[in-house]
Amino acid sequence: MILAGMACLTLLSSCTAFLEEDLKSSLAPENTYTSTLGFEVGSAGLYSIARSEYNTWGEEGAFIHNGACPYEALQVGTDICLARNGGDGSLIPFSQLTLNSSTQFVKTYWQWAYNLIGSANELLKFAQTNTNWDYPTDQALYQAEARFFRAYAYNLLVTLWGPVPLLTESKAEPRTNFTRNAVSEIDAVITADLNDAIANLPEVGKTVTQNRINKDCARILAGEAFNRMGKYAEAEAAVTATINSGNYKLISERYGKFLSEAGDFYHDMFRWGNQRRSQGNTEGIWVFQMEYN
Question: pTM of the entire structure?
Fold first, then answer.
């Protein structure tokens, strides 16, 4: 009995230290957003979420299934394409205009957008307090990327739904009491985010890798968003800066690795191995880097 009691006391006295969580082999915001490298990891996550809007391969965490990608739902039933009977059933409601809040890609877009917003908010939260940067410009750069993606998601949300909940801070606690904010409130955040992105993102050709967003990505998104808001002069000014930059031109002749094959210059832009700017596509402002598996 005495030995058993001593064993219990030993176990109890050691439990406090044993249960203290000290992450060593997994990523969490607290142990990731502590350096420029950590913010690079977080930024890559934003690109991964954004890319899943166009992904049909059902990669882990993409909010989609094997088959159609979310973006296809916005094209079906228009003059671009029509879903055939017997094809992917998830697109039929969009083709026949019978969609509702339970339709797969309606839910998909809502979840996708708020996942992107939540991840951007989290990066912004830790970027405000981190002091361990490789270069003095790193903080503004990663904040600009996060604000671009937040504006990207919110502009799509208000385009599809109008008033939606506005979240600009990262919250750890679950909530079920969300209410919709006026479109004007959301547009104010979009405007501020895009102005910051235009100011702090690098010019095209100056990004770390060619798939990263640049000032022109933010300018074109601003043109789309400001036009929706009725700010036509601001929309024109944003896109004119890109048009007049001299960094882009319409493809008017054949180029790239398929010149020996039959085709035309428009088709050349969309062939695998011809899509990137480094491969000759002078129309590409932002080209997602996507390869199977």
Answer: 0.86
